Amino acid sequence: MKKRWVFLLVMMAALALAGCSEQSGGDTKKEEGKVYTLKMSTQQAETAPIVKGFYDLAERLEEKSEGRLKMEVYPSAQLGSDDDVIEQAEQGVNVAVLTDGSRMGLYVEEMGIIGAPYLADNYEDVLKITQGDTFKSWEKSLAEEHGIRVLSFNWYDGPRHFLTNEPIEKPEDLKGLRIRTPGSPVWQESVKAMGATPIAMPWGEAYSAVQQGAIDGAEAQHTSTYPSRMYEVIKYVNKTSHFQLINGIIVGEKWFETLPEDLQTLLLEETRAVAEGNAKEIADMQGELEEKLKAEGVEVVEPDVEAFKKAAEQAYEKLGFTELREQIYKEIGR
Questions:
Q1: Could you say which residues form the signal peptide (predicted)?
Q2: What is the pLDDT of residues 33-84, one digit of tens each?
Q3: Cβ contacts of residue 127 below 8 Å, gap of 6+?
Q4: Among the listed residues 138, 200, 141, 198, the one whose alpha carbon sits nearest the alpha carbon of residue 174
Q5: pLDDT per residue as tens digits for the range 199-214
Q6: Which site among 88, 234, 298, 316 is 20 to 30 Å from 27 CA-CA?
Q7: With 80 as the cut, is the pLDDT of residue 12 above it?
Q8: Which of 9-13, 41-45, 103-107 shows the lowest mean pLDDT across its residues?
Q9: Does residue 26 lie within any of the structural domains?
Q10: For residue 90, is it within any domain?
Q11: Domain range spanning residue 262?
């Protein structure tokens, strides 16, 4: 009798284990079939070249994940300001944001140097910085201390210039002019060092602000200036090339960790790959966009760039970035 009871208990345990195993397998299959959706937010207009890259990325993610990972693109700040969406990302919401080093400098202070004036002369130089060990340590700090995961930081949007209604040939010409720029300390101090009065406001409000006389101009790259039709409210593009705008796409670490490992890898690899191709397209189209601006009646001014570089040194001193710049230059062999 005892042997029979032992046999029954063993059989019951075996059946229970088999049931658990079957259930586990069912859950795994269900997990494999789960669809993850990421909402991509940017202030850039629908027609901006970099936004085209986001749509390309969305297609590749869905195709290569066999529909398990989808990206929805929301241009023109449809999901709110960058700061609001970044806060949502930190809380674990399924949102991604196009951002820049100066804004990330609000979390990891040294990272703000990516947005400092004349740090690099072209995309290749600034790309080297974002691929270096120092930058990687900043990315680690963002993830571990602030819950922000950088998917890639190789999205290029071109050099930024001053957009005004009077020609700017030297820093002194900016004196007294209220110029729209993002609100991060690095960009504010940089614009101030070069002679203007920085005014922080969302890019989507710059057109009406110039039109109404609330500000005297803005600073931006061709890829935003032309699609946003700024040529309707400004007369001059002054080619100072003071910032080489390299951007990153970030998500919340909490949301990223909900993805299966294969989708994490796919998201990281495809975001970097698409950015690389999109950056080349944008670098190649600078001349074309400039000609389009001229065709709309904008006059392109070639200012004394060396004078602006000299004035911009004040920003490095004010922000305490002088030694950090030398460290980075040594790292990339510049």
A1: 1-18
A2: 799 999 999 999 899 999 999 999 999 999 999 999 999 999 999 999 999 9
A3: 154, 156, 246, 279
A4: 198
A5: 999 898 999 999 999 9
A6: 88
A7: no
A8: 9-13
A9: no
A10: yes
A11: 35-332
Question: Has residue 151 been placed in a domain?
Answer: yes
Q: At residue 21, does pLDDT exceed 60?
A: no
Q: What is the DSSP letter of 292?
A: H
Which amino acid does the sequence have at 248?
A: G
What is the dihedral sign for C-alpha 291, 294, 298, 301? positive
Is 82 in a helix, a strand, or coil?
helix
Q: How many helices (H) and strands (E) does the chain have?
A: 14, 9
Q: What are phi and psi of 246, to 5 degrees?
A: -110, 135
Q: What are the DSSP calls for 29-45, one per residue? A: HHHHT--EEEEEE-SS-
Number of domains in the chain: 1
Instruction: Name the residue among 267, 277, 283 with its Cα closest to residue 58.
Output: 267
Whether residue 228 has pLDDT greater than 60: yes
Nearest to 161 by CA among 189, 181, 183, 184: 181
Q: Given a cut of 70, is residue 246 above it in pLDDT?
A: yes
Residue identified by tokens 């195993």 is: 21
> 272-282 burial, b for 16+ CB within 10 Å, e for fewer?
eebbeebbeeb
Query: Do the Cβ atoms of 126 and 69 come closer than 8 Å?
Result: no
Question: According to DSSP H, which parts of 194-332 are helical?
Answer: 206-211, 222-225, 253-256, 261-284, 286-295, 305-319, 322-332
Measured between alpha carbons, how far is 276 from 206 in angstroms, rounded to an integer?
A: 29
| Residue 31: predicted pLDDT | 61
pTM over 0.85: no
- Mean per-residue pLDDT for 302-306? 98
Judged on CB neighbours under 10 Å (0-12, 13-18, 19+), 321 is buried
Within a domain: 2: no
Q: Which helix (H) or strand (E) holds 163?
A: strand 148-164
